[in-house]
Structure formats: C-alpha cells, structure tokens
Amino acid sequence: MNNAPAVTYPVGRSPFQAGLLAVLIFAGLLVALMWCLAPGVLDWRQGLLALCVVLSGVWAGLNWQRSPVGRLRWDGQVWCWTETSTAVETWGTLSVHLDLQKVLLLCLRPETGAPIWLWPEQNTRPARWQDLRRAVFAHQGRLRDQEAMAHPAGLHL
Q1: How far apart are CA 91 and CA 108, in angstroms?
Q2: Where are the beta strands (DSSP E) in the chain?
Q3: Going residue by residue through the chain (157 aa), what tens digit of pLDDT does each one get?
Q4: 57 burial class (0-12, 13-18, 19+ CB within 10 angstroms)?
Q5: Distance between CA atoms of 16 and 133, rounded to whole angstroms?
Q6: Class for domain 7-12+68-154, per CATH?
Q7: Distance CA 69, CA 45 (A)
Q8: CA distance 75 to 22
C-alpha cells in the first residue's frame, strides 16, 4: 500500500457538500421557527437568530460557489493541486479530515499560502476512485511512519 500508483483526479463543486449545507441551514431555520412559535413573547432575539441563520446560509452558499475546481495529482512522491481557472500548480501536504467511502474531505496545505479544502467524490470519475483512495491513505500511512520514527517508543512531544 505504500507504493500507491500515480493518479490525477478531477475535483469540483461537491453536490454532497451542497446537500450537507442545505440540511444544516434547514435545521437552523427549523430551530429558529420552533423558538419563534414557542409560547411567550416574540422579541428581537428570535429575529436576530433568524437573521444569523439566513446570513450564514448565504455565506455558506457563496463559499460553495467559490469552491476550488481543478485536478488533484499524486505523482508517487508529492501532492499537486492545479486550479482549472488559473492552471497554477500548488504543491503541498495532504490530510484527510472526513472519509465517507464515496466522498472525502481533504486539505492540501502548501508551504506558503492558505490551505485548500477539497471534496472529491467517487461519482466524478468512478474508474479512478480507488486509485485516489489508495494514494491518499498510503500517503497518510507514510506520514504516520515518519512521525513514529521521529518520536520512537510513542514519545510524542
């Protein structure tokens, strides 16, 4: 598993992420509505909650629309992100933050600049999905091995 094949995988706006955001926004609006309908005086606090939920929903939607679109590439040694709109390559360290088998939440941390959050999905390119997963998790295993060698006997500082 440590010799995962080189792979290039297209990543775009994630329908899963959009659905997750929609469910969370709907849940927030439902809570705000339930509070507004509870017996008692309707005052500015309920209005403020509703406004916050709506504004956070708009903010989340705008950020989803600005999600990076491009190609994630593993060459056997390092990860590279190429944004479709600029064709600029960004090299960095990849970490897994969520694994739902058919959807991953990954973070590419370049040496300089802001981290790039990516939501690759199996349905984007099913034939290469397992290659991507092998590369992602082989790389994670190698990072753990390097950390264990740097801090022997479980002595993590």
Answers
A1: 8
A2: 7-11, 70-74, 79-83, 89-99, 104-110, 116-118
A3: 456 789 999 999 999 999 999 999 999 999 888 888 888 777 888 889 889 999 999 999 999 999 999 999 999 899 999 999 888 899 999 999 999 999 999 999 999 999 999 999 999 999 999 999 999 998 665 555 555 555 555 554 4
A4: middle
A5: 18
A6: mainly beta
A7: 39
A8: 35
> Which DSSP string corresponds to 24-50?
HHHHHHHHHHHHHHSSS---HHHHHHH
Separation in Å, CA 101 to CA 39, 73, 105: 44, 19, 11
Q: What is the pTM of this model?
A: 0.78
3-state class of 94 per DSSP?
strand
CA atoms 140, 107, 93, 136: torsion sign: positive
3-state SS assignment for residue 138: helix
The dihedral of CA 38, 39, 43, 45: what is its sign? Answer: negative
Q: How many Å separate Cα 43 from the centre of its chain? A: 38
